Amino acid sequence: MPHERLESALSETLDELAAAGSRKGAEDVIVEVLPAAEGKGPRYRLQGDERPYLRMNANAYLGLGLFEELCQAEEEANQRYGVGPGAVRFISGTWAPHIELESRLAAFHERDAAMIFSSAYAAIVGVLVPLITDQTVIISDALNHNSIINAMRLARPADKQVYAHNDMEHLDAALTEACGRHKRAIVISDGVFSMRGDIAPLAEIMALAEKHDSGFAENVLVVVDDSHGVGAYGPNGRGTEELGAARADLLVATLGKALGVNGGYVAGSPTIIDFLREQSPLYVYSNPITAGEAAAASRALEIVDSPAGTQRLTHLKAMTERFEAGLTERGFETIPSPHPIVPLLVRDTERTAALVAHLRQNGILATGLNYPVVPKGDQTIRFQISADHTPDDIAEALDVLGHFSG
């Protein structure tokens, strides 16, 4: 059956996105990875383009996705268990590598229990929605990730509050106003904010939760999504919790960024994890990651906890500092942070597009972020540093940026 009227309406929306500079357009297709050589890190070839590119728009902060050890661990598990789980977990889709990985994740984060999801997006939605009741107030940072925003839309709490970004006075006021009115409060924040690379003041958030906890019959629960933090910074790769000297009640994170594999997870108390295994539809009714992916993720955790992991974290920190300093020296605006997300604030949609095009023409892959991904006036190019990057790579990127005349 023809759908001309529907397709016409959808085409109008696409045209509006293009006019606003927020249409993502065709996706790049990577067809080859060229190994590191001659003082430079890996280069990437794209479909229809023979030029090698330096990739500075990936979440692969430790570069573990190219590690032979991870590839071997995944292949061995695939040979033993097959390439797919075959069912959701409560039916027959739980394999030994899933259990081993959950045990390793709990130990890595010094928690008593953990459970894995098919992705970090599924994890945050699958954790928040079952925990939000019609007698719950949920209080969220204004710059939280889209997954958190959509989880709040899907849930039906008694009340939703949004506090100004990292504004602890505003959070304190929101908790004060909610005390005695709702049985349960959930405070939710990113650990590292994905568009800017700045970090939540976790110790202060936890202190405010403790201050107001007695005002709620079912407590104040703090949930932190540290998908960009875990494995990406901190002396031991524990991210926000390590540098913040505090622990969230529930920690959600990913296996698909610094750990180099795929999937998401949550770590917390056994009772909450058991509840989520029973009540989270994105866990109960979705296939898990494969046994091979779970085995590779376990190996990634071992590497992070080894001298090799410490060396990569130290190198990552050094490359991040070098790139950040180079931006400042060349007169660009950035947001100082120990995290390898280094934003270049352009604050103009057209200039952002021109600078991204200039980088691409000179062999650098970077991603421009415009409204509504970021607030109006915060148009940004998000550079993401990796332990795969070398001093020569950083120098090359800075040289290209220094020759931009737009």
Structural commentary:
The structure is a single chain. This protein is of the alpha/beta class and 406 residues long. The protein folds into two domains: 31-60 and 309-402, Aspartate Aminotransferase, domain 1, CATH 3.90.1150.10; 68-304, 3-Layer(aba) Sandwich (Aspartate Aminotransferase, domain 2), CATH 3.40.640. It contains 15 helices and 15 strands. A seven-stranded mixed sheet has the order 4-10-9-8-7-5-6, with helices on both faces. The chain has a four-stranded mixed sheet with strand order 1-2-3-13. α2 (68-81) packs antiparallel against α12 (291-304), α7 (168-178) runs parallel beside α8 (202-212) and α13 packs parallel to α15. The termini are far apart. The mean pLDDT is 94.
CATH class division of the largest domain = Alpha Beta
Fraction of residues in H or I helices:
40-55%
Structural class: alpha/beta
Q: What is the CATH third-level topology name of the largest domain?
A: Aspartate Aminotransferase, domain 2
How many strands appear in the DSSP assignment? 15
Mean pLDDT: 94
Order of helices and strands: HEEEHHHEHEHEHEHEHEEHHHHEEHEEEH
| Helix run count | 15
The Cα radius of gyration reads: 22 Å
The total number of structural domains is 2
CATH homologous superfamily caption of the largest domain: Type I PLP-dependent aspartate aminotransferase-like (Major domain)
